[in-house]
Design a protein that fits this description.
single chain; 150 residues; mainly alpha
């Protein structure tokens, strides 16, 4: 029995990238930032033995800056943008709102669902998804919204 690999022709990938490239870049940045966040948090907590909340807040502050810089310079680079300091504050506000939504969804799901590893993973995933949606709309429609050229 032979297995056939399905390949996507290059023109179709190019069309996909042209149509959804910004969203794909946003997801790639988010994925990289998520891994950086987890590694930094774990390092601050275990290697540097920071208290739990200090480690979390420190990692979050670093991640907001990294996420903003990557999205400004790669995801939304083609848009005329507001000043860097103003945009960083806007990004921090959106990220904070997304974090609150993420944790709220996680908390609500974890209290409603049974106490099992699978329900914990589901609660975690739904929280991440809710935060991702807030981050996308906040970034796309507010933080990195194209400004009029004067």
């Amino acid at each position: 029995m032979s297995s056939k690999l399905t390949t996507v022709p290059v023109p179709e990938l190019e069309t996909l990238w042209l149509k959804h490239g910004q969203g794909i870049r946003f997801l790639l940045v988010g994925s990289a930032v998520f891994m950086f966040d987890a590694a930094l948090f774990y390092g601050l907590l275990s290697v540097f033995e920071q208290p739990l909340m200090l480690a979390r807040c420190s990692a979050f502050a670093c991640v907001v800056i990294v996420s903003w810089a990557a999205n400004r310079s790669w995801t939304f680079v083609e848009r005329k943008q507001v000043s860097k300091p103003q945009q960083l504050l806007m990004s921090a506000a959106v990220s904070s709102l997304a974090a609150v939504v993420n944790l709220t969804v996680f908390y609500l799901c974890s209290t409603v669902l049974s106490n099992s590893p699978l329900s914990g993973l589901l609660s975690f995933s739904l929280g991440i998804l809710a935060g991702l949606i807030i981050n996308w709309f906040g970034a796309n429609r507010w933080t990195f919204k194209a400004v009029a050229v004067e």
